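Q: My labmate handed me this sequence with no annotations at all. I'd like to see what the chain might look like in three dimensions before we decide whether it's worth expressing. Could you predict it?
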Amino acid sequence: MKSYDIQEMTDMIIKQLELRLKGIPEKAKPTIDEARISDEAFNPTNRLVSSLSERSELNVPTPRSTEMLQELRDATPARIGVWRTGTRPLTKEMLRFRCDHASAVDTVYGEVRSELLEKYELFQIETQYENTENYLKRPDMGRLLTDESAKRILKHCKKGAQVQIVVSDGLSANAVEHNLADVYPALLDSLQALGLKAGTPIFVKGGRVASMDHIGEVLQPDVLVMLIGERPGLVSSSSMSAYMCYRPRKGMLESNRTVLSNIHHGGTPPVEAGAHIGTIVQKMLEQKTSGVKLVI
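A: Here is what I predict for the chain of 296 residues:
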């Protein structure tokens, strides 16, 4: 039995509905396999182009000002002017809404593929989160490594590195799946171009932002960069943030962290983000500080 991506299935159903509304004969309608778009069309960049194209079509039949409505829609990814049928939303809009909601839920409970972590040689550890349900209810347990993980990184990872890179699924496994292949190599290239050396890259499963403090306590790098999945929403379930801190230790104030957020193909481009993170890290090393005291 074939499996279909939830976004792919939703797009195919909407296409079938639109054909039916246009009165195209049944025999002329494509089957699901015929309507299935290639894998290339479903990469994040192409999906964004498709989404922007769909948003350019105004559903409101007689807006008071077409120009003003279009300007408002162009200014935000929020669902504006989706229109209705009677008192309910249009079927295609409701399907997209439910699809986006399902994607947000799926990514919280999702897993980052081991093949991806192995490809970038990320040393894998975990926090005390235990499981996803506990992770959501007890944020504090996602801030501390297990005793075994702390021992393993001390034994196998470089201590006192100039720059320590940590990747975590956080609240969005999709963020790592969709962005790591772009942001991580760009970050490494940026550090190399600036003459900065990175330590052993780490992937921490079930991590919260403050888990970087525990890692910093054990490995004591000059700067730690954490690439972590953000809380998913109905606009994007694959948004990543980069939290950076100069000499992080347990008890570090949130104001001492510097963050670059909304890293995804519909926000800050991952490649651009990777390059920019490198320049921020350089400033941290020069100024020996981070957070609100850092002058960027």
